[in-house]
């Protein structure tokens, strides 16, 4: 079965998809909560043609950079596909970026135009417009905004001039032409603009297709992708392209994080890309918040599920006694967990940050295959991945077809393949992201076993060296602590200090209901100092420490009065922790832990 219709570039993907899939649904979206509208592939191509032709009529030239500043929605996809069809280069901007961050990305990329979601995003650009000499046009998707061209005007221009020039340009794009300037989320320093070519993204799409064909996955015609991750990130963008390439349907979230689970249940997706925090929260609801005895029974049932599903995947017979116990567990537990994801998930991919092995085993045992992978913006999203048929939980899987992996003498993971980026735009950085003889220096420390499974040990820049010379990797302890139902974030500290300590933040979704039932204060700040809460955190710290050698164990902990956030600069848009910012914002808390 031919699983791809894309050509050598992504410029004409929309029009190829319309020819191949016609009236098949391409997208679903909500105008109002719980009211889903549908767009076919033919209609999607018409929308892209109108918008792309309108941009050309406005004056957009081949090679110009155009940014999109908005949340994940159908109009974002239309704007993106129209920009690249017009021979221009898409520039990623996160909708949560501040005006100053927008100024950096738009200025560094020399964007000639920016497509804004609404008046609120237009206002961000207006606040820094005097810093952007290359910016000529601001376009607003929803309604009107001062100084902005409306999307209706762009579409009107496109309909009047017709799509001929747009199609000519789309056909003239070459694989080596820049496709996107994808800006990293910037855990250290300003975001870097990764130049990714059409060939780079086409390479990673080809690798995914080859992998799924080898795995014998089901028909793409049944693919339903629920998409809530920011499309400004490489992870979500890849899944969008794969869905449109294969004739699947994308169900766009409604924009409210509190409604993700209800929407997933309504959409019943087959594919669900996500970040670990979402799976961690569901795991906490299903397991972590239960009494100890019940939790043990649940985990034992999930372990049984893992055993049976591994036998099935290996083509081996399941003993009758094991099948009977499995069927009982399926009725009592597994069906309910699958229902939280709509009941149809064939593949959920987690990436962008580490996730605990126990969480992956739990979901897999329940019949929700959450598979961990590894990649970077610099690798056009992907590099390694586990699959339902070939997985080793605790690793990030094996390299995708066509991608090579090895470790340097110091343990740094090196990657090579057609998906490796073209460098940072107007920015050289020899310490990270360097490419030597085709090998990308990832900045991650890793090991690779005899079967090719890659295990990420930690980031080179995150390694803590105590004043006694002990090298510590914080990821393991931090991930263990985040499995506690009471803890939202955990940050180990101790570089050039006599011993490691940890700062934790409380998870309001679990702590506040518990506190209310106990008659305790309803303020996170007050609870962070309450003896009952400190006891809960101490238990979690002791359990995490028990897995470590004495020099690696944290000696003290502090509980922050608030959670980390993007607004305070401590989290990236993909929820990665900016350790330097956390260290600066919580200097007093860390210093107090070394006070005596």
From TrEMBL:
Superkingdom assignment: Bacteria
Annotated source species: Rhodococcus spelaei
Entry-linked InterPro entries: AMP-binding_CS, AMP-dep_synth/lig_dom, ANL_N_sf
GO molecular function: long-chain fatty acid-CoA ligase activity
Name under which the protein is recorded: Acyl-CoA synthetase
Keywords (A to Z) from UniProt: Fatty acid metabolism, Ligase, Lipid metabolism
Record-linked PROSITE patterns: AMP_BINDING
Family: Belongs to the ATP-dependent AMP-binding enzyme family.
GO CC annotation: membrane
Domain named AMP-dependent synthetase/ligase: residues: 16-425
SUPFAM superfamilies: Acetyl-CoA synthetase-like (SSF56801)
